[in-house]
Design a protein that fits this description.
Number of strands: 0
Oligomer: single chain
Distance between the termini: 25 Å
Number of helices: 6
Structural class: mainly alpha
Shape: globular
Largest sheet: none
Order of helices and strands: HHHHHH
Length: 200
């Protein structure tokens, strides 16, 4: 069962890195801040899966009981990465509002970005299935993050569409909104894991 967790982390790492490269290219090509921020979010998810992989490897080596704190620590680190990503979004969103730049709309890029939402849904379902086979707070955190990413990418797509029809500053507003939501969610996890680490 412990191998299931390792497989989940490896698959998550590979897919998130692929999504990062795809969105980074599109974000730079279109000058879309919301797509660029979404790419950075996937890079954060890649690191999160890397941390999870390290934690699961430690659990396999040390055993389940001695490594409970390691799992909690991994969840804590993942939440820190997610919170930092959210704050980064807010900062860039504010910068875009003060210093707006033109965004290039592309239907082909829009289709590709929309398809990545389906990938994230499948990843969330994968983490959920693996968590049922081998329960872990780390897998649960990765599952929640994947579902949140679906919303983030949806917002990024809306930003890319609306930016050409309303005002390109709306791209920054979407970055601020999604960044705030991510940060609040991550901070809640940080507080919960901090309490666990202190009390155990």
């Amino acid at each position: 069962m412990k191998n299931v967790r390792l497989y989940a982390a490896i698959i998550g790492l590979a897919l998130n890195f692929a999504l990062f490269l795809t969105k980074l290219y599109i974000g730079i090509s279109t000058n879309s801040l919301s797509i660029y921020c979404d790419a950075v979010n996937n890079l954060g998810d890649t690191f999160a899966c890397g941390v999870a992989l390290f934690g699961f490897a430690m659990i396999k080596r040390l055993g389940e009981k001695p490594a409970e704190r390691a799992q909690s620590l991994c969840t804590f680190v993942i939440s820190l990465l997610i919170a930092a990503t959210g704050i980064y979004f807010v900062y860039n969103g504010l910068e875009r509002l003060f210093y707006p730049i033109p965004v290039q709309y592309s239907l082909n890029y829009l289709i590709v970005i929309s398809a990545t939402i389906a990938v994230k849904v499948l990843m969330a379902l994968m983490f959920r299935a693996f968590n049922k086979k081998s329960p872990s707070p780390v897998l649960k955190a990765l599952q929640l993050d994947s579902f949140l990413d679906c919303f983030i990418t949806t917002a990024a797509v809306m930003g890319l569409v609306l930016v050409t029809k309303v005002n390109y500053a709306v791209d920054g507003i979407f970055a601020i909104i999604t960044g705030s939501i991510i940060s609040v969610s991550a901070i809640k996890n940080i507080v919960a894991e901090t309490k666990y680490l202190i009390n155990n």
